[in-house]
Amino acid sequence: MSGDWTGIRACVFDAYGTLFDVHSPAARLRDRLGEKAGALSAVWRTKQLEYTWLRSLMRRHADFWQVTGEALDFALADTGLADRVDRDSLMQQYLTLDAYPDAGPALDRLRAGGLSTAILSNGAPEMLAAAVGSAGLDSRLDAVLSVEDAGIYKPDPATYQIAVDRLSVPAGDICFVSTNAWDAAGAASFGMRVAWLNRFGRTPERLPAGPQSTIDGLDALPPLLGLAG
What we know:
It is a single chain. With 229 residues, the chain is of the alpha/beta class. 43% of the residues lie in helices and 12% in strands. It has helices at residues 24-28, 30-33, 37-58, 64-78, 87-93, 103-112, 125-135, 157-167, 181-190, 221-224, and strands at 10-13, 116-121, 143-146, 174-178, 193-197, 213-215. The protein has a 6-stranded parallel beta sheet with strand order 3-2-1-4-5-6.
């Protein structure tokens, strides 16, 4: 599935799970977490996302740092690790997530091809600044945008409007990239052209809107947009 990608002026990326590996905190502390490291990380991520959706529906917004902490508290209790793990150590690890190896090179190729690059994330501004700086992606991004400007989480349409306003690029001229299929659907519904980064071979969602293209790595994005290697 390739679609028409002519006229793209900017590439906007989700951060967590797309550019940054959300499971790297638990992986780094695997010696302390033991055999439950994977389960803890999976529950933490699931609850983190669920809480953003539920808070949006309840109109009870809190920033992503708070939500991430609340999700971690649930995950620690659910996996029986609450009394065995330093919660603060795990939270601090979230500020220096590992970037996926294909993130930097892809951003470089896109910028060399004349496209603007940006992050649009649920993350709080301080969280994003820390992760981007730690990964050395600062100079590869024209903007790092947070949903805090809208006061609600993706996939609310107001969140995608932030990118349109800040980049001064119409939605249809933006290529939005996310590993999260629900996020890809949200951006597509808003009117962006979407490349779903299906890193993990997941089943496509059954939602009202969907991606224009599916890629399995960020190295496939520049060629998709017609940029030479």
